[in-house]
């Protein structure tokens, strides 16, 4: 263990012992099982390092103490809650650092029904928050991976299937409490929906991937649960045909709740998990939409718009007639990621992982990039379903690779980069919702330009001069020409 980390842990232990009332619940873990569990997240990257220690915190004061000491000793700190990040944001790249586990900070601090907002800690899962809010008739829209927590969702500016109507985290967070690198605690703004007071610090921290500060509380915008809804799927012979229909739907202005595309390969994977032949889906590229509103007429109007946009090219069209059917149709999208490896289950004695990547483009270019991506995947001889939050031009490739085949992993990362570069040529982004992490550092300057990158480095150096907060993520502190 490095001398700096040892000093940090000794100082923390002293605070726990001498100020037990305030710091007694702070725990320092160095056992192998804990260190191993916190050395990886859900990404496929292998550059992460085992931490020297995991410090489990239970309050804002704990985080402030840890960061103030770590900053003085220049010990790297990475925040960790559920470990669901897909670009290695929750892992260390320096083995002489610690993981700050905020998962026990999982309280819903307040729900202001009359103001349609709530205050939560970073370890609250969005699924648990939805259940907590159900009795109020309110919900929090962003819905990324099932186990994701609010802290990480802020860090990556995640979104999910409901972003088409409600936007991303930046559109749904009113205010944050944040601990800076030196232990200083700040509040970014008050709870009012509108404010013109000062810089927009809330949005500065959202999407910063834990490199500028650590969120301790978030005030979230809530929405009314729609009183009427219906799920509809339409199947087409090709990916391009479905994407053309999605373009029509978006350009029509119809306020769908969700608008997704699932390709034929993804449906084949999902079908492997369905035992009843009668409930399997036709293996065709599928558009899924959820229509929702305040009345039956509003939903019917959206359904009519959907059917009209599908035109004569649709091969199958199914509208759920009850909640059970709606859940079955929606299971297509929910199972996509977890069923992907089933496509190679016939290859015995191999360990498979899924290289997940996402890009987003203006809706007018969705057809072009999907067709091009399908071609890239075929040329690389990869197995990769495609799923899309199609309504906002964002899609994901789930490249199923042999974890012990470096050449195959290399082909997957090459496709990832080609996808991203093509998206940039189309005035899109190299990541719609997964973030940069370490996997897309080399693409960020290509997207934003040298001037914007230097401005971000200036901000980082101002807020974290010792570079202790999630170092090596989003960008290198020095520009590539200086490395």
From TrEMBL:
Known EC number: 1.1.2.4
Q: PROSITE patterns annotated for this entry?
A: FAD_PCMH
Q: Quote the catalytic activity from the record.
A: (R)-lactate + 2 Fe(III)-[cytochrome c] = 2 Fe(II)-[cytochrome c] + pyruvate + 2 H(+)
This protein's name: D-lactate dehydrogenase (cytochrome)
Q: What is its main location?
A: mitochondrion
Query: What domain of life does the UniProt record list for this protein's source?
Result: Eukaryota
Q: Which family does it belong to?
A: Belongs to the FAD-binding oxidoreductase/transferase type 4 family.
Record key words, sorted: FAD, Flavoprotein, Mitochondrion, Oxidoreductase, Transit peptide
Instruction: State whether keyword Mitochondrion applies.
Output: yes
Q: Which GO terms describe its biological process?
A: lactate catabolic process
- Please give one Gene Ontology molecular function term for this protein: D-lactate dehydrogenase (NAD+) activity
UniProt xrefs under Pfam families:
FAD-oxidase_C, FAD_binding_4
Q: Where in the cell is it found?
A: Mitochondrion
- Does the record's keyword annotation contain Mitochondrion? yes
InterPro entries (UniProt xref): FAD-bd_oxidored_4_C (IPR004113), FAD-bd_PCMH (IPR016166), FAD-bd_PCMH-like_sf (IPR036318), FAD-bd_PCMH_sub2 (IPR016169), FAD-linked_Oxase-like_C (IPR016164), Oxid_FAD_bind_N (IPR006094), Vanillyl_alc_oxidase_C-sub2 (IPR016171)
Annotated TM spans: none
Q: What are the residue boundaries of the FAD-binding PCMH-type domain, all occurrences included?
A: 47-225
Cofactor(s) the protein needs: FAD
What the entry lists under SUPFAM superfamilies is as follows:
FAD-binding/transporter-associated domain-like, FAD-linked oxidases, C-terminal domain
GO cellular-component terms in the record?
A: mitochondrion
Which species does the entry assign this protein to?
Chytriomyces confervae
